[in-house]
């Protein structure tokens, strides 16, 4: 048996030692004793009595990296292959494998792990250790498992150069590559921390990454969130009340009316780290990117993987989740409509409900409020209705939408998505009223306090004002770029432009965040419809709502005048000057306008350009693209296509975000395609479109939702705050009481 246990600060090695040298030094050389004492303090300052356990495929460099990490921490280094298995078996690992075969080898290897114990050490596992469940559970009890994630192509090349032609599990008809892919599921099951290792990373570089990752793992207090409206002096006074990811997911809106942003910004990936994701699936890319944005103290990697798998595993009709399709010339479409409710909102809202359910305390019920200009509502309702039954009992959602400001199919979809914990309320006003009303409700401490005391219910937000809504959107912008590299359209490092139809600035902000994290996006093009307040602002620096009235258009999801997420971007380019942001938005609230100072406008225009599209141009673009390619754009994507045609300089590819499926806007599409529009119900309109064998086909989820009967009813409310509050109380009483 191999055993290292700690009774006092000095580790005692009993029975079989890592190497007999350790025991001899401890017994006969006081200097060595002092070195080990020093070792204890240096390693324990980082991980305490826990071990750093390096895990990864054969050829990942675990042994070499482990030695370097151990040297830097001045602590013992244990290689399971050399110091445990071969010592226990009295034969080489390869001889043992040849002697007993694959299955028995894994069992013998696992038994050796179960008899092993150590503390304050750096341990390098074998490539097959993670395939033995009991052995790994034993190791994790006193260790931080670090996964050295090396691309399979790199591992294959290394093993070839090392002349390794067989590993555990390999047999005739099963290739080395197949085995490496098969093992990934076991690595992903056990790790606490992932370290991306590009093919050009030296062992020294990887060791530094390991140490940085362990430091991050041990220091969750470094990843806090602040309000866009808090000043530096206020933040220094608030150090005792840090806000973490799990806090701000639940709270949604900051108490001062601002939006939460990470105090230290988002992580920046190296070019090599991004390149290691080129061969990865969408789900794998999402896992890596979100691990960098969400501290494991808030959501452990294993739970995050479960959430991502649930969100994207079966709920999307396309296996690529967010495929990139060539449209024409240098234009590519990022198709974001393959989720259950046919819009880009599904990417966040299939995930956020599960994140929310994990983060909230169990002692309170929660009512999630959301305002929608069209697509968010059905996505929120669908996402929260997919929670486990126990979670649905304590989490409900209420969706407010402009009764006459969404398409008929969008309305039918929102009504059809109502479930026992998910309800829609039509408001006799526009989206801006709905969004402003929710913000006012959240900042009304008397009312929220009343709900908590009277009904034991707290409020939360699911709009893009909630930080958790933005993170999944960063993933698909990054993934689109990696897909172009994977398809050999561009080499990594070559720039692309992106063009995004937006009204609330959330989707384009996610692209800007992807750029900050290292994706080579050159320009973000903001595409507006006739409600072009954002375009005017980006061009002039003047945000002016005076005299503006919302214009209902064929692209209702961007029929927005008050752009919430713009506040986060202004806070970013103003170097986190919360006082300035507060001043600007107070002026907007009181006077209906504000003007950005010249230097900030120039900074903004380095990243963002903008244009807008008329209703006639929108319909003409749909007709033109269909006539030349057979592909049907939805109305929002058509807005982006018009603006992209106008503003791109054709020196690099441009990725146009296709934010919704055309099925949601059948009357406008029928009109654009010059098909005689007949007054039929939404389901009949979709059948009519389907008869033209369009590309892509009519959306499956919409057809299923519209076929449902018995969900035609919904509540309609006047544009009055007291009426909205009454609706909220009624739902709470019906669902929670």
From TrEMBL:
Threonine synthase N-terminal domain location: 225-312
Pathway annotation: Amino-acid biosynthesis
Cofactor: pyridoxal 5'-phosphate
GO cellular component, one term: cytoplasm
UniProt modified residues of type N6-(pyridoxal phosphate)lysine: 345
Single GO term (MF): pyridoxal phosphate binding
UniProt record, GO biological process: amino acid biosynthetic process
Pfam families xref list: SKI, Thr_synth_N
Alphabetical keyword list: Amino-acid biosynthesis, Pyridoxal phosphate
InterPro entries reported for this sequence: P-loop_NTPase (IPR027417), Ser/Thr_deHydtase_PyrdxlP-BS (IPR000634), Shikimate/glucono_kinase (IPR031322), Shikimate_kinase/TSH1 (IPR000623), Thr_synth_N (IPR029144), Thr_synth_N_sf (IPR037158), Thr_synthase-like (IPR004450), TrpB-like_PALP_sf (IPR036052)
Similarity annotation: Belongs to the threonine synthase family.
Record PANTHER family: THREONINE SYNTHASE-LIKE 1
Protein name as catalogued: THNS1 protein
Species, as recorded: Caloenas nicobarica
Source lineage: Eukaryota, Metazoa, Chordata, Craniata, Vertebrata
């Amino acid at each position: 048996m191999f055993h290292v246990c700690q009774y006092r600060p000095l580790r005692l090695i009993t029975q079989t030692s890592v190497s007999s040298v350790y025991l001899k030094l401890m017994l006969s050389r006081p200097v060595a004793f002092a070195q080990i004492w020093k070792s204890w303090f240096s390693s324990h300052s980082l991980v305490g009595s826990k071990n750093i356990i390096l895990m990864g495929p054969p050829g990942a460099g675990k042994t070499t990296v482990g030695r370097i990490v151990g040297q830097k921490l001045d602590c013992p280094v244990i290689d399971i292959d050399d110091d445990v298995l071969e010592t226990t078996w009295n034969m080489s690992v390869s001889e043992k494998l040849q002697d007993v075969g694959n299955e028995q080898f894994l069992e013998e290897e696992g038994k050796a792990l179960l008899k092993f114990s150590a503390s304050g050490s750096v341990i390098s596992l074998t490539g097959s250790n993670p395939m033995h469940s009991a052995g790994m559970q034993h190791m994790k009890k006193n260790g931080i498992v670090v996964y050295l994630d090396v691309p399979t192509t790199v591992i294959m090349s290394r093993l070839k150069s090392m002349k390794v032609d067989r590993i555990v599990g390999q047999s005739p008809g099963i290739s080395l590559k197949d085995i490496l892919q098969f093992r990934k599921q076991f690595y992903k099951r056990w790790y606490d921390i992932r370290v991306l290792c590009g093919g050009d990373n030296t062992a020294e570089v990887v060791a530094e990454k390991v140490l940085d990752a362990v430091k991050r793992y041990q220091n969750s207090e470094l990843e806090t969130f602040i309000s866009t409206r808090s000043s530096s002096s206020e933040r220094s006074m608030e150090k005792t009340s840090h806000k973490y990811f799990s806090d701000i997911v639940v709270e949604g809106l900051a108490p001062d009316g601002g939006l939460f942003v990470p105090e230290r910004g988002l992580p920046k990936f190296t070019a090599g780290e991004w390149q290691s994701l080129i061969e990865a699936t969408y789900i794998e890319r999402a896992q890596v990117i979100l691990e960098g944005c969400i501290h494991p103290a808030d959501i452990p990697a294993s739970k995050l993987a479960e959430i991502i798998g649930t969100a994207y595993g079966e709920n999307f009709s396309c296996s690529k989740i967010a495929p990139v399709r060539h449209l024409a010339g240098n234009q590519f479409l990022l198709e974001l409509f393959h989720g259950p409710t046919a819009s880009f909102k599904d990417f966040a809202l299939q995930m956020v409900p599960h994140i929310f359910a994990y983060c909230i305390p169990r002692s309170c019920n929660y009512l999630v409020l959301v305002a929608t200009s069209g697509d968010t509502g059905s996505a929120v309702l669908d996402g929260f209705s997919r929670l486990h039954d126990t979670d649905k009992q304590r989490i409900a959602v209420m969706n407010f939408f402009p009764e006459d400001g969404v398409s008929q199919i969008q309305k039918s979809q929102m009504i059809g998505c109502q479930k026992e914990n998910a309800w829609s309320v039509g408001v006799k006003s526009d989206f801006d009223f709905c969004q402003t009303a929710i913000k006012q409700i959240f900042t009304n401490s008397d009312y929220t306090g009343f709900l908590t005391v009277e009904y034991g219910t707290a409020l939360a937000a699911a709009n893009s004002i909630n930080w958790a809504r933005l993170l999944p959107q960063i993933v698909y912008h990054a993934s689109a770029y990696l897909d172009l590299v994977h398809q050999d359209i561009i080499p990594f490092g070559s720039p692309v432009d992106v063009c995004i139809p937006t009204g609330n600035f959330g989707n384009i902000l996610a692209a800007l965040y992807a750029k900050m994290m290292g994706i080579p996006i050159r320009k973000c093009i903001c595409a507006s419809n006739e409600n072009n307040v954002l375009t005017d602002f980006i061009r002039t620096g003047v945000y002016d709502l005076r005299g503006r009235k919302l214009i209902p258009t064929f692209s209702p999801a961007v029929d927005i005048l008050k752009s919430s997420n713009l506040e986060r971007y202004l806070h970013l380019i103003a170097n986190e000057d919360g006082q300035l942001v507060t001043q600007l938005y107070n002026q907007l609230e009181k006077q209906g306008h504000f003007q950005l100072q010249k230097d900030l406008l120039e900074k903004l225009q380095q990243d963002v350009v903008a244009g807008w599209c008329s209703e006639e141009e929108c319909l003409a673009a749909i007709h033109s693209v269909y006539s030349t390619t057979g592909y049907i754009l939805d109305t929002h994507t058509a807005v982006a296509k018009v603006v992209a045609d106008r503003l791109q300089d054709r020196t690099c590819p441009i990725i146009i975000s296709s934010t919704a499926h055309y099925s949601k806007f059948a009357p406008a599409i029928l009109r654009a395609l010059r098909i005689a529009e007949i007054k039929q119900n939404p389901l009949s309109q979709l059948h009519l479109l389907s008869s033209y064998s369009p590309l892509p086909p009519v959306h499956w989820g919409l057809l299923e939702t519209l076929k449902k009967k018995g969900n035609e009813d919904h509540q309609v409310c006047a544009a009055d705050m007291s009426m909205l509050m009454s609706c909220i109380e009624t739902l709470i009483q019906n669902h929670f009481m």
